[in-house]
Design brief:
By secondary structure, this protein is of the alpha+beta class. The protein has helices spanning 11-18, 75-78, 82-90, 168-175, 181-187; strands spanning 5-7, 29-32, 37-42, 50-54, 72-74, 92-97, 99-105, 111-116, 124-134, 140-150, 161-163, 165-166. The longest helix is centred in the middle third of the chain and has 9 residues, at 82-90. It is globular and about 45 Å long.
């Protein structure tokens, strides 16, 4: 499970890399964590940064905000779950990042954190799904879930999962309303 990532790029770097408008409220995060309001780019609004909470409420909670959130979804599960396939078609986002963390267990009670970045320290994007819902008071919430894949050889020495990292061509297809379900699953390697 990926529980932390970093996005320490400046607003100008984000705007240049993703060709988006970045609101003044953007803040760099060395330790982006679940339940925080974090930047995403949705396929419904690919021209700008939106801020969504990391962690989707499980479907059984019926629009309430539980303490338990779903922060990751396995790419290989999406094709088999109708609710995830609907989100894949209607509610995709990319999560701008410049690193992610994995914890290597060294004993039953302790683990060492590792931060993984690209060799050039460039920004990259992570595939995600988002949703919106109202709570009992009628307030609208937007949340996102990070899609993960089996870890590659470098990450696997620390943890068995990693974010589904998209290259620039994959980002264009992921955010396009013209990309069909089969193509989207292909991007995820499913």
């Amino acid at each position: 499970m990926i529980e932390r990532y970093s996005i320490i790029a400046t607003a100008e770097q984000l705007a240049d890399r993703f060709a988006v408008d970045v609101p003044d409220s953007y803040k760099q995060r060395y330790n982006a964590a679940p339940a925080q309001l974090l930047p995403v780019i949705t396929h419904e609004s690919p021209q700008g940064i939106s801020f969504f909470y990391w962690g989707t409420s499980p479907a059984w909670t019926k629009n309430k905000i539980p303490g338990e959130k779903i922060i990751n979804v396995r790419a290989e599960m999406i094709a088999d779950k109708p609710v995830l396939k609907r989100k894949l078609v209607k509610h995709r986002c990319i999560i701008p990042a410049d690193g992610f963390y994995g914890w290597k267990k060294i004993s039953k009670k302790s683990a060492i954190p590792y931060r993984f970045t690209r060799s050039s320290d460039n920004l990259f994007s992570i595939a995600g799904l988002w949703e919106e819902y109202d709570n009992d008071e009628g307030e609208m919430f937007h949340t996102f879930t990070m899609i993960t894949t089996p870890a590659d050889d470098l990450v696997n020495v620390v943890t068995d999962r990693m974010p589904c990292i998209l290259d620039k061509n994959m980002e264009v297809a992921w955010l396009s309303s013209q990309t069909n379900e089969e193509e989207l699953l292909g991007i995820l390697g499913s």
